[in-house]
Amino acid sequence: MSELLQYIVTGLTTGSIYAIVALGFVTIYSVTKVINLAQGEFVMLGGMLMYTLSAAGLPYWIAFFLTIPLVMVFGMLLERIVIRPAKGADALSLIILTIGASIFIRGIASMIWGKTPKKVEPFTSNDPIQFAGASVTPQSLWVMLIMLVVVLGLYFLVEKTVIGKGFQACSANPLAARLLGISPARMSLLSFGLSAAIGALAGMAIAPILYPSFDVGLMLGVKGFSAAIFGGLGSSPGAVIGGLTIGLVESLGAGLIDSGLKDAIAFGVVLLILLIRPSGILGEKSVGKGGL
Amino acid sequence: MKKLDKRWYGYLGFLVLVLVLPLILTQSYHISILTFAGIYTILTVGLGLLMGYAGQISLGQAAFFGIGAYTSAVLTTQYDLSPWIALIFSLLIPAVLAYIMGHTMSRLSGYYLAMATLAFGIIVHAVLVEWKSVTKGASGLYGIPKLELFGFAFKPGISYYYLTWFFALLVILIALNIIHSRVGRALRSIHGSEIASNAMGVDTGKYKMQVFILSAVFAGLAGFLFTHMNYSINPGSFGLDASILFVTMVVLGGMTSVWGAVLGTILVQLIKLFVQTLGEHFTFITSEFEYVIFGAILMGVVIFMPRGLFPTLVSAWQKRKSDQSTVQENQAA
Fold first, then answer.
1. Do B286 and A111 touch (CB under 8 A)?
2. A104/B122 CB distance under 8 A
């Protein structure tokens, strides 16, 4: 029983990370109809920059809060230099384009930081808390907390602010949005910045648990993408449900069946869901003809 | 009729190039790079048909490649089957799997299809690593026999080069025949607009399925040749990186042309060679530098040359020719 609880805690921790990464996918997709497969690289950059800044002698929390705007600027540069010139490309080309960006960034990162994983200290002291026979590290709780903060923050931003209204307008009809004085180009730029910030948060939250290395973004990006697909592209609640489900399936599969097969089991479930519901469990939120 | 002739000139020209090349590049290292180019060509021609003609992306093509490779490796090392009988299974098993996968994926498109093929590739890779009783896990299988025909053994080198390119030329021939047939026209109409071609009475689902199976069979054949070129294989050659590399080859050369896939594959092999040579001279260039170049290629092609290298070169050449002929006509007038 306590073992099962332990698997669930682990699953919820990794699942929360997948959910945050998936929310990054959803944020860009709902505004621009672009799936940014380089999303995982934002996560990697978050962890790596956090390591570099704190290794350079900056206090922990200053490094933390400096990393976010740095990765944001990076995300905006990606939008301006890579995504914008390919305006109007179809899904196939966009997939290829963002995969290209992803392996390009990964290659550069390996040349800068080398191949060994970097050790990052946890947010607070890391003595495990015993809870009903399972031990929970404080960092796991931080990860879940950050996931909740991201969910609430995104909800507030999209539903309650002028920028959020702009996002929704561009998503529904970019031409009409322009007539009302909202620039879809600026909203696209902002959505990449926001998504990069979300990715960086995920990267820094997971760094003390899964030490970041240059290739950490690959699997996290793929898992986040599958979580977003699982829930139905463009749906934020779907992304969170997808992320947590994949995390739980993976952790229970590893614990109860075979730890080597955990990825196969997780992706098997994703395939099964796509077989039953070809556009995710909550279905794609059909938000009009938005896009770049 | 004249157009048909022209097409075969290109094919014959390429045939001569394939025959002559080993006489110019005699280093065994170069021969092996060219042999790998032949193996990958078999796979990318199929992938090009799938992406460029049927408009379907596959981010898991290395899975079929791996299944073809492992099928033959397991049958020949553990059941002492003749490689030529194993070849039948190396083609058949990917075809059956593609048929099953095709049914589940027929309702998917765009990003959802990309995810499904990605998931398929990751699952197959995980199974190759974990199914230790059959695949021997991450360390792989050893002692794979060489291919023999009438007592002649194809060892890595010149003879294996010609064997590989024999199959590659055969695959190119099949692909060229397909795209200039009724099936090819149907496929192009699907890529243009699936709804429109459906309305015109094209059974889009059937054609997409056929191309998917064909691409899997080609990948299986490539896997078979890959296995018997080596003494041992391990799952490392059939992961996500390999799938992305295959997509890079097709996209660089141009996915709307069979020759594009061939050109892209050869270019990527040359780039690999170039990076390795650079790495010997500059310490900061590691093997990861390859990915920086491949990433830059993928981005550059989509932004500046969305049709890929080969179609762009062809239309540039045709434009120049027609410009020249108008100049001549003007002078005559």
1. yes
2. no
The hierarchical CATH code for the domain A2-276 is: 1.10.3470
Q: Which residues contact B231 (CB under 8 A, 6 or more apart)?
A: B142, B143, B144
- Tokens 């290109």 found at: B10
What is the nearest CA distance from B99 to chain A, expressed in angstroms?
Answer: 14
Confidence of residue A292 (pLDDT cuts 50, 70, 90): very low
Q: Tally the domains of chain B.
A: 1
Q: CA nearest B297 in A: which residue?
A: A100
Residues B150-166 have a mean pLDDT of 84
A212-270 pLDDT per residue, tens: 888 888 889 999 999 998 888 878 888 999 999 999 999 998 888 888 888 889 899 98
A104 vs B contacts (CB less than 8 Å):
291-292, 295-296, 298-299
Specify the CATH number for the domain of residue B196: 1.10.3470
Distance from CA of A268 to the nearest CA of B (A): 7
Indicate yes or no: CB of A110 within 8 angstroms of CB of B306: no
The answer as to whether B3 is a domain residue is no
Res B1 pLDDT > 70: no
The secondary structure of A56-111 as a DSSP string is TT--HHHHHHHHHHHHHHHHHHHIIIIIGGGTT--HHHHHHHHHHHHHHHHHHHHH
